[in-house]
Amino acid sequence: MKKNFILFIFCILSLSLNAWELNSPNDKIIVSINKVEKKLFYNIKYEEKLVVKNSLLGIKTDFSDFSIFDNVSNYKTLQNQNVEYKMNIGKKSLRKNKFNSLELKCENKGNYIFIEFRAYNDGVTFRYNFNENKYFKVEKEFSSFNLNLAKKAWMQAYDQAMLGKPAYERAFSEVKVGTNAKKFPVSDGWCFPALFEFENNVFILLSEANLDKNYCGCKLNKNADNGYYKIEFPCKNENSGIGDVNPYIKDSNTSTPWRVLIIGSIQNIFESTLIDDCSSPFDKKRFGSTEWIKSGRSTWDWAANLRTGNFKKQKKMIDKAYEMGWEYCLVDANWNKWNKNNAFPLIKELCEYGKSKNVGVLLWYNSGGKHNKISEQPKDRMLDSIIRKQEMKAISELGVKGIKVDFFQSDKQLRINQYIDILEDALDYKLLVNFHGCTIPRGWQRTYPNLMTMEAVKGGEWYGFSYTGGPNAMQNLYYCYTRNVIGSMDFTPVVLEKYMQAAGPTYSHALAQAVIFESGIQHFAGSITKENRGYIPIFKKYPEVKLFLQNVNTAWDKSIFIDGHPSSHIVVARENKEKWFCAGMNGKRFIKNININFSFLPKGNFQAIIIKDSISKKEFSIEKIEVDKNSSLNIYMAPQGGFSILFIKK
User: Fold this and answer.
1) Does residue 185 have a cis bond before it (omega within 30 degrees)?
2) What does the DSSP assignment read for 458-481?
3) Euclidean distance between CA atoms 360 and 431, whole angstroms
4) Are 152 and 175 contacting, i.e. CB atoms less than 8 angstroms apart?
């Protein structure tokens, strides 16, 4: 009996020595890590319900296999760590979060790494920390996410390498958990972010954050049998086959990107800033003040015409930006061909003209490189460090306020380095940055606050491409709960054109995007200079639409999720400097009636200018009522419709 009791105690101690637990500060999330036959697995519970189970941890380098461990011990724990910072752009200006952390020292044959977990109030992050003073290769990452308890998922297939791809510009789809990505043509895995729904209205959004020059961008495996998803590196033939697939770590005491699981209700998912919260803060000592960084709205003639207008056309676009009270005018591809390939004198004149009207000029660039077969110009001015700095210095002196850099076509480490080099150099020359044909946000907007927005979305410009067409209403809805959660999204919204109607959304649905889709610079994609199409005839018939677009903000102090679900609709409210907006989008092909409680408003009386669906997709219905925080409103959304509300303080 005594011998059996001792054996029992030994077993209990052995289990406790090989198991660790971490709770979130609010105790809603519990992470447990277990060592089983030299391997590490983690589980996650949310509100006492298991959501992630028996998911493998580990990473293999060229000097040791850290998926097998001889010994694992608790190296460090931290409790109630506060995260608080401010952002110039995004869904909230003041960010606050809390986390508890656990760091395990994991040894194999005399070598060791640290695996660090953080449990935030709205999710879990983990990464691998190295303590090496040598250059080494990461051969494989074993991080996995066993999500077979989920009911369904919303995911985006990862493009096979080809001209202009991968670029994260496929539509998201609602899929069964474990669906093989090969179901979608010319795909090679699943993209981040990926959204999963569980019982009791619990959701998990997977993504990654704090990616730096020591790693590549990652994706999920295409064949996720039984909902077991694994981290994968980029495809070999990306970037025209140039560059290594495997990351090489050159900095001592470095870490992999955070693997991020945002967890909670769909409101928690939409409102979360966890991708930024766990990313490195801006280095003010290195780069100086950020007072020059201004969010704003922009005219953009390329989208309406699928080409860049000449110098005179851009002056008209500046005039229209001034009329609307917008802050920027984007001059897109091939501007360098002006004036017989001597465009800088005209760019200087354009900047001076814009300055007289308080409108900043933004310039387009091709990211360049031998791998890049896209012919649009200027090209090869953003790749080589010396040439890039010379170009940035020159355009900054001309008065240019920012750059749009396009066509990256890979998440390999050398392309990730180019993104970061562009951001750092642009900070030195006080230039805003917009990436297109690009990867997804990975927390860079906190580290580099001059990054105003990124595309990585099948957006408004696609409505002009007759061979593909733009996203339908449901696809637009999916972005609210996936892509736009992780960072600013340059969807280029509010296309009020006939060719958009073929995709299904109503004009009210399109207008609502100005509030629902968050972007540090919002490039409005409709024609604004032609009398017979686009914005001008709409503004003449519905001056309230013009008033709305003149007032709408692009950086928000507050963002509040009111109602919705990824499979049906969304209603949100946003506020900037005491100016409030509310908007909704219906993804379904049938009518949706919503009751909105205005309790989010501050004290006082407001005039609510309500712009909503009418009988025709291309018509609006306007209503003006007086409301306060105790008011509520029943509002109708047409099939694939929407609404927008501007609140004016009385």
Assistant:
1) no
2) --GGGGG-TTT----HHHHHHHHH
3) 11
4) yes
Q: What is the DSSP string of 565-611?
A: ETTTEEEEEEEETTEEEEEEEE-SSS-EEEEEE-TTS-SS-EEEEEE
pLDDT at 6: 39
Taking the CB of residue 645, how many other CB atoms lie within 10 A of it?
A: 26
Q: What is the DSSP letter of 380?
A: S
What amino acid is encoded at 243 in this protein? G
Q: Is 84 exposed, middle or buried (0-12, 13-18, 19+ CB in 10 A)?
A: exposed
**Percent of the chain at pLDDT above 90?**
91
- The whole-angstrom separation of Cα 179 and Cα 194 is 13
Cα gap 526→498, rounded to integer Å = 11
Q: Go through the domains of the chain in sequence order and give each one's CATH number.
A: 2-279 (2.70.98.10), 294-456 (3.20.20.70), 461-650 (3.20.20.70)
- Average pLDDT, rounded, for the chain: 95
Q: What is the pLDDT of residues 177-235, one digit of tens each?
A: 999 999 999 999 999 999 999 999 999 999 999 999 999 999 999 999 999 999 999 99
**Sheet strands side by side (includes 187-190):** 144-146, 228-232, 219-220, 187-190, 157-159
Structure tokens at 462: 């696609």
The number of angstroms, rounded, from the C-alpha of 523 to the middle of its chain's C-alpha atoms is 16
Tell me the whole-structure pTM to 2 decimals.
0.96
Collapsed DSSP state (helix, strand, coil) of residue 202: coil
Is 70 exceeded by the pLDDT of residue 474? yes
Q: In 3-state terms, what secondary structure has residue 54?
A: strand
257-290: burial string, b at 16+ Cβ within 10 Å, e else: bbbbbbbbebbbbbbbbbbbbbbeebeeeebeeb
High-pLDDT (> 70) share of the chain, %: 97
Cα(190)–Cα(471) distance, integer angstroms: 19
Q: For 467-479, what is the mean pLDDT?
A: 91
> Average pLDDT of 286-315?
94
What's the average model confidence in pLDDT over 92-118? 97
Alpha-carbon dihedral sign for residues 244, 107, 230, 454: negative
Please check the confidence at residue 3 and state whether its pLDDT lies above 60.
Answer: no
642: which 2 tokens? 């929407």
For residue 650, count other CB atoms closer than 10 A to its CB: 10
pLDDT at 249 over 90: yes
Q: How many residues comprise the chain?
A: 650
Kindly give, in sequence order, each residue whose CB lies less than 8 Å from that of residue 259, ignoring residues fewer than 6 positions away: 125, 126, 127, 143, 206, 208, 231
- The answer, yes or no, to whether the previous bond of 493 is cis (omega within 30 of 0) is no
Rounded Cα distance between 341 and 325, Å, is 32
pLDDT tens readout for residues 186-195: 999 999 999 9
